[in-house]
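Notes continue from the previous slide.

Worked example: a multi-chain complex. Inputs as given:
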Amino acid sequence: MTLLCEQLLPSRRALLASSGALFSWAFLPKMAQAADGRDPRLIVLILRGALDGMSAVGPVGDPDYERLHGQIALTRSGPHAGLPLDGFFVLNPAMKNFARLYGKGQAAIVHAAATGYRDRSHFDGQDVLQNGLPGVGHIDSGWLNRAFSAIPRGARVNPFNALGIGAQTPLVLQGPAPVLGWAPQGLPEAGDDLRNRVMELYTHTDPVLAKALREGLATQHLANSDGMDATRPQGGSDNPAGMRQAARGAAKLMAHDDGPRIAAMAFDGWDTHVNEGGATGRFALLLGGLDGAFAEFETGLGDKWKNTAIVAVTEFGRTARINGTVGTDHGTATVVFLAGGAIKGGRVIARWPGLKDAQLYQNRDLAPTTDVRAVLKGLLADQFGLSAAVLGNRIFPESAGVAPLRGLIAA
Amino acid sequence: MALEKDVKPGYLALSRFGYGSRGDGDLGIAASDPRGFLIAELNEPGIALLSGPDLYPSSKLLPELFAFQKQKQAERKAKLVAKADMKAADMTSPAMASAAMQPKPAMAGKMAAKRKGAPPNIIYQTLQSEALARIDKAIAARSGLVERLVAFWSNHFAVSIRKSQIVVMGAGAFEREAIRPHVLGRFKDLVRAVEQHPVMLNFLDQAQSIGPDSPAGKRLKRGLNENLAREIMELHTMGVRSGYSQADVTSFARILTGWSIIGPQGKLGPPGTFIFNRFFHEPGAQKLMGKVYPAGGIEQGEAALDDICARPATAHFIAGKLAAHFIADNPPPALVARLAAVFTKTDGDLKAVTLALINSDEAWSTPLSKIRTPYDFLIAASRAQQSEPPAVGPYFYALKLMGMRLWAPPGPNGWPDTVSAWASPEGMKQRLDIAARIGHQWRSVANPSEVLATIMGNAASLETRQMVARAASRPQGFALLLMSPEFQRS
């Protein structure tokens, strides 16, 4: 029996039935499994504020690193030494879980990566990162929503189970394909009868509000069946406890056999202009939250972890040189974090551009050598079997020249 | 039944430009002359200002904060010393060790105090007083237009209490001191007041930006922080991709060096106030967007700021944001162009621009397609209830649940201003639960249908009227009223 059917009260059943096809998935006896038996999951973490890739994954083997990154550079030794990765790079010591996963071959890093966006506006940069366009432009949907629509139905993913975490769905997951929403919350819920009536009113008068509320109610139902309705918000999206809680909630929903296969959430606070800190301090504290989120997914997803890929991306990196206030200003290339049982990990993937002044982008930032879209396309290709043609056109428009980075998923 | 009076224009005025009806006959008054109803509010002297017995200037609040921080630091130090003593004692006395292991009673006491809802310290007391004063004013306002403008500009020049205790303590004062006096004045005065306010200088890291060749830069080996310079151009004035380069950002950052805050010691004046610190200022002339600003002091930055405010990009950016806020996510380009022209012609007279918006045909012919933000929704709900002003705790909690903590946007670009951002699945679900809660607490002699008739009249659709009339209970009826599209849209 499926999760939803078990829990239905008569009035809720009426609501679901009246809202038509959107909910039909919930009544499917069993979702179709992939032909190869894999049941892949993909989680996208949007790190808003421009994460300093050089303080997260320090190129300690580069002779110019310490000169540029100064007192916030990571080190090989000392009281807050970076965690060893491959001899050239070390990981920020705040990321102990990620290091452990890396050791198990379940985490990887792509370094010196950037989207196609080359200016330094957070907000344009975040839009490009999430809408998947080659540069600034207008489009109402995110690449993950479009990818979700493009996955063959009945193959690997059943319909209507993408999950947006937080009071606002991240742009990457907005779009025509329906999305469920969930956030830690703490009020007693409106009764079923009131819900039905509001839904009926919207159905007749306001389709936009109807769609949004229907999707919000659907997830809450999933969450309630897990006893998640009792949770209280523990912190915002820029708080380590809040990051962990969001991940824990998402993992719980996704761990179900018929739970969401795709999820997106945003973590904030990475805009470290002042006293950034390196191995310790504000930046490390936030990285600890991200690291905790990876651990929550690993634990919460249970046996689904083995087919899960998590990717954490940010709009751009920060200046290679620290600024006048021991922080960093807006830059270009940075890191992409990959984790999950499905990831072919234990490696840092980078064509290192070097840090001599002339090698920096505009004599200022780490130069990009890998397109973030190549990483995302590779994940979507290997995880969901999307073709290069679809990826280069519908999902990431005008990106045919950006070849998917294959082999990120363990065969 | 007598022919129903047509109050739709009044409903439109109160929903599009205000915080909704207060159920005191305002709907009928607004309906008879909707433009005049709004304009009368704009003409009230000092209408945008906010004062009160619990509200203090930032020049008083920030020194208090510094003193509080100093005291806390001293307490922490004392605790550490005590702990070290305890540890030393542990070596010899097992009894002492077990005593040190039991901090529980103190913790429990602290938790109990927290649960009673009393703010833990002066910082949060101040935040609550400021919030309450703001909320009360919005609930009591005639149409709410001016308070909507204040909220709009406050979000345009967003600061966030996620940043620092200075912002928590000063967010309300920043709005009262930098925003309110200018929302119906000149844009360049508004910008200058904002960029010279200690809370903004803290929020966007300007206070510590030092010219590398300034006396302080040479001595301390510190330098530029370009955060404020970039966001002034990108977010506050011209808008992104409007003709400035990275070199302009850096140059503007040099120009702005010295715009700072006087520290807790008060060596250079009253602590916590704005200062132009010439020891921080980068010497020499600077070139910004093709124009050379000769070497100088504070006037170098003020001249650059005035020029930025006068650029066509600024007029267009501001006009577009205002129209997107009050008319539609994608406002008619002709309207935006007209507003920009008024902005330019009047040297950025924001009252003139607001009047042009109210007097436009588009304001009255475009259907209500926006959705009230969570804050606007709660204010409108309080007005509809005609009850005593609410306690601030539940307000804060409801805002948090709907993802819009007061003065706490995730970034310097403020809260999003689109339908998709607020009509999100999780957001609507939370709204419903909150509406249900408010419905239960609604104290009114009138029944939900009567309230609906009073605050919306014939602007409510037949479906909404029927749904409210057929509610299973009064609380449910009020919740349905609050969730109706006519109440949600703005």
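Summary box: Strands of chain B lie at 259-261, 274-276, 286-288, 291-293. The two ends of chain B are 30 Å apart (CA to CA).
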